[in-house]
Amino acid sequence: MVILEKNNGFTLIELMITVVVISILAAIAIPGYLGLQERGKKGSVVRAVSASESELAAWIQSARKTGPLIEVDSTGDGMVDSSDATNDTLATALANANQLCALYIGARNALLNETSPWFPTTPLWLAGPAAAGRVSCTHGAGEPFINLVAQDKIGIVFYSKLITSD
Questions:
Q1: Residues 87, 100: contact at Cβ < 8 Å?
Q2: Which of 11, 23, 121, 163 is disulfide-compatible with 146, CB 3.0–4.6 A?
């Protein structure tokens, strides 16, 4: 009588099938994960820009008033006090293209120091024409509204809003 030895192990076919199944699962999961990351980056930018809308409306409203009254935190220290710009100073900034945006961005950067989720060493905000991976804040000379535009890492606009005061 011949006794056959029982081999404990996997056959080549079983290993090949396992590799194919894992490859299919990876091919499905990786693009989904990368898409999820991109949506998360865009979502964080949209939240930051949306949070700034009411602040910018207040800045425009203050700039449209006259006098030495101080109504907004233009230094970014978290307080409205004598170190901040007066309404007259804000009105002068609004009279010059993109200057009110530059003041606002300076105050926001002093308080939050936000960077682009796509380019971590690049500031998120800029006063002037739109750029890939950033939020641009623009206004014309004397115009009572501000345009906010956010672009992703390849320059596709995914957020655009015109802000004005009441």
A1: no
A2: 163
Helix orientation angle between 12-63 and 99-112, rounded to the nearest 10 degrees: 120
Tokens standing for residue 29: 């999961």
CA distances from 86 to 52, 71, 75, 128, 164 (A): 20, 7, 11, 23, 19
Cα separation, 142 vs 130, whole angstroms: 20
β-strand 125-127 against 135-138: which pairing, if any? parallel
Q: Measured on CA atoms in the order 65, 68, 55, 154, is the torsion positive or negative?
A: positive
| Six-digit token string for 3 | 């006794």
Phi, psi at 101, each rounded to 5°: -60, -45
Hey, which residues does 161 pair with through a beta bridge? 148
Q: Tell which residue, 122, 138, 141, has the closest CA to residue 130.
A: 138
Name the average pLDDT for the chain. 90
Quick one: the chain helix, strand, coil %, rounded to 5?
45, 15, 40
